[in-house]
C-alpha cells in the first residue's frame, strides 16, 4: 500500500531550524512543509514591501533554505512553504540565489500569487468586517492590506508542474499539507471526505513541535523526554486518508494520544465544522490510537462541501502602543510596586495624555489573569510593574514608557531594570469575499545546474 | 480537587476569540468532566476575563471538551494591550478549577 510521508520544518516564522535539518536528513520524507505566516505577519510584510520592493518575505528564508536544501535535493524532498509572505517572487529569487551558491541546480521553483486582494477590497467597501459587523468602509484610509486565504488548488498545480520548491503567500495552513496528499493520491477537489481527512493531517502538523511534545510539558503531570532536542513531526498517510503521526527515531519530544488530542483542538471552534478554502472538515468523530512509542494513528475525520466564500485578513493601522516596565524585589516589593502603579496612573492623568485604553499590571501578581484568580496567592519576592497604553500618536506612546522610567528618580525606593517601548499597531480583522474575485496564479522559474 | 488532577488543556486564539480544550487523562473520567466543567463554572471561574459568549463543544470519543470564548482577547493578538496577548495562559487558569472529589 502506498504511503506518503510529510514532515513539518517550521510551525511559525521564528521557529528552530535544526529539527527541519534532522527531518530532511533522517526523516525518510517526501515533502517538507514550512508554515511561517501568522495573521499579523502578512500585514507587517506588506508594509515592509511597500518600503522596499525586494522585502516582505520571511526573514529566515535564506538561512532555512541554506540549511535544508542540500539534504532535500539529495533525498528527493519537495519543499512547500508560505514564507513568500507579501512577496513570493522576491522570496523565490532568494531561494534561487541560495541554490546557485550551493551548486544545487537544477531546481524548479513555483511561486503562488493571487492572495493579495487589497485592490479588490478597496473596490468593495460594502464587505462586512466579521469582528465588528461594520462595513470595510469604516476602516477608511487605515486599511493597509487585504490577503485572501488560498486553498490547496494552486499548490497542487505547482506540484503537477514538477516543482521542487513551492513558495506561497497567504494560504490556509492545512492546505500546505493537503495539496501534496491530493497530488500523490489523486484525490478529487470535491472528495469532501478525503479532503477532510487530509485537512486533519494538515491541522495537526501545521504547528510543528506542538504535536511532538512542544508546548505540552508540565513536570510531574505531563513529562516530555529530551525536550531540548525536540523533533518535528512526520505524518505517514495512506490513500484512504488514515494517518500516523511520528518523528525521527532518537529525537527528543513525545508523540502520544494526549499530545495529539491537545493539538487536534488547538485553534478549533466547532470541531464538526473546521472551515478551510478546501472543505468544511469534521473532526468530531476522530479516533486516536497509540500504535507504539511516538506512533499515533488518527482516523474518522470527514468533511462536507467547501465554503462559498474565502476568508480575508485585513491589516489596518490602529494607532500606537507605548509600554514601560520596572522591577521591585525583596521585602516590601509588592507595596512599592503598588505605590509605583498608583503614581504612574496619577501622572498619566496630570500630563493629560490622550489614552484610548490603558492597563497597569503587576507582573508576578495580576498581569496575566487579573486580581481575582491570584487573590489567594502568597506575596512574591519580586514584582514588575507593566504599564501599557494605546494612543493616537507615536509621541504620546513614548510618554507612557517615559513615565515608568521616571520612577527611577521620581518613584519608590529601589526600582530597577526599567525598559520602555513604543510601536505602531497594525491590527488584523477579517472579512469574507466571493471566490470569483480571487484568481490564484502559479509562476515557475528554473535554476540551472 | 483541582481539575488539573483529571485533565490537561491547551489554549488557541483566532482573532478576538479564544478556545480552551479540557482533555481527560483517562477516558473513564470524561463523564465527570462533562458534569463538572460546565459553561457556568467556566464563566464563574474566569470572571472578568470573559467578555463575550462561552460555548462548549463535547467530544466524548476523545474524552474532551472545547470551550470557545468570543470577544475575550482585547481585540486579538495584533492589537491587545495584555502581556499575554494570545491568552495562552488561560489553559492554566482553567486547570485551577475546583472539582468535587468523589465520595
From TrEMBL, chain A:
PANTHER family: DUF1446-DOMAIN-CONTAINING PROTEIN, PROPIONYL-COA CARBOXYLASE
Acyclic terpene utilisation N-terminal domain residues: 4-444
Pfam families for the chain: AtuA (PF07287)
Listed name of the protein: Acyclic terpene utilisation N-terminal domain-containing protein
UniProtKB/TrEMBL annotation, chain B:
Protein name: AtuA-like ferredoxin-fold domain-containing protein
PANTHER family: PTHR47708, SI:CH73-132F6.5
InterPro entries per UniProt: AtuA-like_ferredoxin_dom
AtuA-like ferredoxin-fold domain mapped to chain residues: 1-99
Amino acid at each position: 500500500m502506498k504511503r506518503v510521508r510529510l514532515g513539518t520544518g517550521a510551525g511559525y516564522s521564528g521557529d528552530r531550524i535544526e529539527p527541519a535539518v534532522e527531518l530532511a536528513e533522517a526523516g525518510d520524507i517526501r515533502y517538507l512543509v514550512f508554515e511561517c505566516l501568522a495573521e499579523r505577519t502578512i500585514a507587517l510584510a506588506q508594509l515592509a514591501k511597500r518600503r522596499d520592493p525586494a522585502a516582505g518575505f520571511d526573514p529566515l528564508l535564506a538561512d532555512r533554505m541554506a540549511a535544508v536544501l542540500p539534504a532535500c535535493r539529495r533525498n528527493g524532498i519537495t519543499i512547500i512553504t508560505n514564507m513568500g509572505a507579501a512577496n513570493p517572487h522576491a522570496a523565490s529569487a532568494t531561494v534561487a540565489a541560495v541554490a546557485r551558491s550551493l551548486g544545487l541546480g537544477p531546481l524548479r521553483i513555483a511561486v503562488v500569487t493571487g492572495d493579495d486582494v487589497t485592490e479588490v477590497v478597496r473596490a468593495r467597501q460594502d464587505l462586512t468586517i466579521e469582528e465588528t459587523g461594520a462595513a470595510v468602509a469604516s476602516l477608511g484610509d487605515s486599511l493597509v492590506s487585504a490577503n485572501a486565504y488560498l486553498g490547496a488548488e494552486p499548490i497542487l498545480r505547482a506540484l503537477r508542474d514538477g516543482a521542487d520548491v513551492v513558495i506561497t503567500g497567504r494560504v490556509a495552513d492545512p492546505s500546505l499539507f493537503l495539496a501534496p496528499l491530493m497530488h500523490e493520491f489523486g484525490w478529487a477537489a470535491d472528495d469532501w471526505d478525503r479532503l477532510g481527512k487530509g485537512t486533519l493531517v494538515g491541522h495537526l502538523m501545521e504547528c510543528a513541535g506542538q504535536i511532538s511534545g512542544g508546548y505540552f510539558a508540565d513536570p510531574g503531570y505531563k513529562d516530555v523526554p529530551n525536550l531540548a532536542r525536540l523533533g518535528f513531526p512526520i505524518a505517514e498517510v495512506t490513500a484512504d486518508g488514515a494517518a500516523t503521526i511520528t518523528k525521527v527515531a532518537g529525537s527528543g519530544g513525545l508523540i502520544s494520544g494526549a499530545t495529539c488530542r491537545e493539538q487536534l483542538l488547538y485553534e478549533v471552534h466547532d470541531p464538526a465544522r473546521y472551515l478551510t478554502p478546501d472543505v468544511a472538515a469534521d473532526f468530531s468523530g476522530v479516533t486516536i490510537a497509540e500504535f507504539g512509542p511516538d506512533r499515533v494513528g488518527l482516523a474518522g475525520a470527514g468533511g462536507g462541501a467547501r465554503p462559498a466564500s474565502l476568508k480575508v485578513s485585513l491589516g489596518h493601522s490602529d494607532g500606537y502602543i507605548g509600554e514601560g516596565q520596572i522591577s521591585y524585589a525583596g521585602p516590601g516589593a509588592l507595596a512599592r510596586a503598588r505605590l509605583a502603579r498608583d503614581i504612574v496612573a496619577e501622572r498619566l492623568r496630570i500630563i493629560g495624555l490622550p489614552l484610548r485604553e490603558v492597563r497597569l499590571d503587576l507582573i508576578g501578581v495580576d498581569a496575566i489573569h487579573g486580581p481575582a484568580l491570584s487573590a489567594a496567592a502568597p506575596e512574591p519576592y519580586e514584582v514588575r510593574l507593566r504599564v501599557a497604553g494605546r494612543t493616537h500618536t507615536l509621541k504620546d506612546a513614548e510618554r507612557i514608557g517615559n513615565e515608568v522610567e521616571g520612577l527611577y528618580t521620581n518613584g519608590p525606593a529601589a526600582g530597577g531594570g526599567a525598559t520602555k517601548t513604543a510601536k505602531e499597531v497594525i491590527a488584523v480583522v477579517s472579512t469574507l469575499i466571493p471566490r470569483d474575485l480571487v484568481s490564484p496564479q502559479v509562476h515557475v522559474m528554473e535554476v540551472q545546474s | 480537587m483541582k481539575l488539573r488532577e483529571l485533565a490537561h488543556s491547551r489554549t488557541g486564539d483566532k482573532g478576538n476569540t479564544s478556545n480552551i480544550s479540557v482533555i481527560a487523562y483517562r477516558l473513564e473520567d470524561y463523564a465527570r468532566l462533562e458534569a463538572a466543567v460546565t459553561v457556568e463554572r467556566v464563566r464563574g471561574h474566569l470572571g472578568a476575563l470573559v467578555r463575550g459568549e462561552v460555548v462548549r463543544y463535547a467530544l466524548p470519543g476523545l474524552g474532551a471538551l472545547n470551550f470557545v470564548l468570543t470577544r475575550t482577547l482585547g481585540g486579538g493578538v495584533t492589537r491587545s494591550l495584555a502581556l499575554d496577548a494570545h491568552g495562552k495562559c488561560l489553559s492554566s487558569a482553567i486547570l485551577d478549577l475546583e472539582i468535587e472529589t468523589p465520595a
